[in-house]
Hints:
The protein has helices at residues 3-14, 18-53, 61-86.
Amino acid sequence: MNATVEQSLLSKIRTLSPQQVAEVEDFVEFLATKARKRSALDRLLAIAPALEAAGAAPMSEDEIAAEIDAARAERRARQAASTSKGSGADRS
Length: 92
């Protein structure tokens, strides 16, 4: 982003109410999440030919969904563990 666009955006944001700024922040987070998901999909699709060449059997939609659920559960568990460590719950 060039400096002129950045200054223009900042100038416009400064005129917004706190609620509107929160909406802008939510939208920016939405865009960032969308970009991360697209990047993850692109990385996944990039390895598809290598998997096929290696003779890996294709996964069914149910198997893919189960893998995604397991990865999400693992991430939530790690986040919960790091949150509980940071909260001082282990202090005596």
